[in-house]
């Protein structure tokens, strides 16, 4: 039996203590992400997207319900087990890249493997492979201050997948890129998804970015609002996404 890569059941997240006006940020959210899916989470500001990403990425705990990543229930794990789990099973790609400025592109990408104490020869093989996949082998010796925004985001993507995680998580990964670099990163993510079989879940407010995904989860007020599967061309899917956003009064132009 193939286990889903993400299994979220009846998850609630309450912020604040009980006697201090608790706020229900996630309200009985349940969904599955199967291996090989590329899923976007969309919703109005304050709907709980980042909260959902944080509890799935094990950076925050739930108040109720269960979350399994690749079959492992993350609720009962201690902090050191969680850190180990995160470093093996998850990859993160953020809007602001989070590259270390005093390390070269090669060293930034190698970091997750160095932290796992992998032999340097094997690190070299893996890093060079992923730099090639993302088309940035030519800038391996440059430093983050010497490369473009698009190259920084590719470096961040390479670092996020170099350890071959079960799940790649993105928080507005195209958010700080111009449209050309955003499209280029989305194509890279789609190719990692289709050719390397990496499962991806990303939060985005951008319908164009979401149209590269195979499924969209729309959340509102901490609840599942709607789900949209791509069964058609990217262009038609984009219009279908815009139709849902229009229900919230959030219309965008491509
Ligand atoms: N640490 C916290 N303590 C109390 N309330 C919080 C906390 N973090 C988030 N919230 C509240 O929970 C709700 C969901 O926040 P969250 O950041 O998940 O929304 P979001 O959908 O990611 O929003 P945005 O699109 O604006 O980033 C919001 O109403 C927010 O004010």
UniProtKB/TrEMBL annotation:
<keyword id="KW-0067">ATP-binding</keyword>
<keyword id="KW-0547">Nucleotide-binding</keyword>
<comment type="similarity">
    <text>Belongs to the ABC transporter superfamily.</text>
</comment>
<dbReference type="InterPro" id="IPR003593">
    <property type="entry name" value="AAA+_ATPase"/>
</dbReference>
<keyword id="KW-0813">Transport</keyword>
<feature type="domain" description="ABC transporter">
    <location>
        <begin position="6"/>
        <end position="246"/>
    </location>
</feature>
<dbReference type="Pfam" id="PF00005">
    <property type="entry name" value="ABC_tran"/>
</dbReference>
<dbReference type="InterPro" id="IPR017911">
    <property type="entry name" value="MacB-like_ATP-bd"/>
</dbReference>
<dbReference type="GO" id="GO:0005524">
    <property type="term" value="F:ATP binding"/>
</dbReference>
<dbReference type="InterPro" id="IPR003439">
    <property type="entry name" value="ABC_transporter-like_ATP-bd"/>
</dbReference>
<protein>
    <submittedName>
        <fullName>ABC transporter ATP-binding protein</fullName>
    </submittedName>
</protein>
<dbReference type="InterPro" id="IPR027417">
    <property type="entry name" value="P-loop_NTPase"/>
</dbReference>
